[in-house]
Amino acid sequence: MNQKSAELSASVRNFSVQLSPTPRGARLARLLATEQLRSWGLPLDPARLLVAELANNAADHGRVPGRDFRLTLYVVGDTLRIEVTDTRGEELPRPQRPSPGAESGRGLLLVEALALRWGVTEGRFPRKTVWAELRCTPPEPTF
Questions:
Q1: Other C-beta atoms within 10 Å of 16: how many?
Q2: What is the DSSP letter of 11?
Q3: CA pseudo-torsion sign 10, 79, 105, 113
Q4: Model confidence pLDDT, tens digit, residues 10-65
Q5: What is the pLDDT of residue 46?
Q6: 89 contacts: CB under 8 Å, gap ≥ 6
Q7: DSSP per residue, 27-64
Q8: CB–CB of 90/126 below 8 Å?
Q9: Which long-range contacts does 92-98 make (Cβ < 8 Å, 24+ apart)?
Q10: 130 within 8 A of 142, measured Cβ to Cβ
Q11: What is the DSSP letter of 90?
């Protein structure tokens, strides 16, 4: 293995888990992502907020009885990519401006504000993947 490929393999990390499309599954996605980010030595926020929002959307809007959703985290270089894949491919997410008194409907606006970039990839029907990317650098050591 040459120096270049050793550096690349050391900087590519991934984590993936399949979860039930329920509030409990969405909460578990956030908790597991938090622990994985911590083990990689990466900052927790805003990544865990993005995971919480995307997983909650999968549980609320991507839910199909008997079909799970998948959370995947990739780190390549200094980019963290968060992916949530569900089985409601016909329901593509779009940010909307909710009325001021609405109690929900702001999730994708939050994703849009926090992520470096985000989007939706249509998979083999009936799947879709909603993803968000962040620049990540390990926290500076405190002395």
A1: 12
A2: H
A3: positive
A4: 578 999 999 999 999 999 999 999 999 999 999 999 999 999 999 999 999 888 88
A5: 96
A6: 122, 123, 125, 126, 127, 128
A7: HHHHHHHHHHHHHHT---TTHHHHHHHHHHHHHHTS-B
A8: yes
A9: 92/120, 92/122, 92/128, 93/57, 93/61, 93/120, 93/130
A10: no
A11: T
Assess contact for 75 and 83: CB atoms under 8 A: no
pLDDT digits (tens, 9 = 90+) for 54-101: 999 999 988 888 899 999 999 999 999 999 999 988 878 887 787 787
**Entry field: residues in the chain:** 143
C-alpha span between 54 and 51 (Å, rounded): 5
Neighbour-count burial of 29, counting CB atoms closer than 10 A to its CB (0-12 exposed, 13-18 middle, 19+ buried): buried
Q: Which amino acid is at 4?
A: K
The residues near 6 (Cβ < 8 Å, ≥ 6 apart) are none
pTM for this model (two decimals): 0.85
